[in-house]
Specification:
Layout lengths: L8 E13 L2 E11 L2 E4 L7 E4 L6 E12 L3 E9 L20 E10 L5 E4 L7
Antiparallel strand pairs: 1-2, 1-5, 2-3, 2-6, 4-5, 6-7, 7-8
């Protein structure tokens, strides 16, 4: 049996998708760090993308299978509607209808042994 190295490829399984929540939808996408750029995991070379059957409240969902070197940085981006301030029930008549403002959360991971995702503390806040 050969020893694995820090850059040995690991199989990583991720899930992208969009689900219905209060005031809109919550979307999750995954990104892979390549040099100075972030590449959408769906477009990663050799990525296997499988469209999953959407369940109740699911707009779409995909399973992504990637082979990535151990130590590769991943970013999970979650976008969801912000909570709105309570307003007069008839206030909607006085203003134009607009989509709910969104909150975007970025969480960073590194690929570990056997494809485990290891959370990275607040990596790249300025990116």
């Amino acid at each position: 049996m050969s020893k694995s190295t820090a850059n040995s490829p690991e199989e990583v399984e991720l899930t992208d998708g969009e689900v219905v929540v209060a005031r809109g939808t919550r979307a999750v996408t995954w990104w892979v760090r390549s040099g100075d750029a972030w590449i959408n995991a769906r477009g990663w070379p050799g990525a296997k993308v499988e469209q999953l059957e959407p369940g109740p409240g699911t707009v779409w969902q995909c399973r992504l299978d990637l082979e990535l070197p151990r130590g590769t940085l991943l970013m999970r981006v979650e976008s969801r509607p912000l909570a709105t301030a309570r307003v007069d029930p008839f206030a909607y008549l006085e203003r134009e209808a607009v989509r709910a403002r969104r909150r975007v959360l970025r969480t960073y991971f590194k690929v570990g042994r056997r494809g485990a995702l290891l959370r990275e503390p607040e990596h790249g806040r300025s990116e």
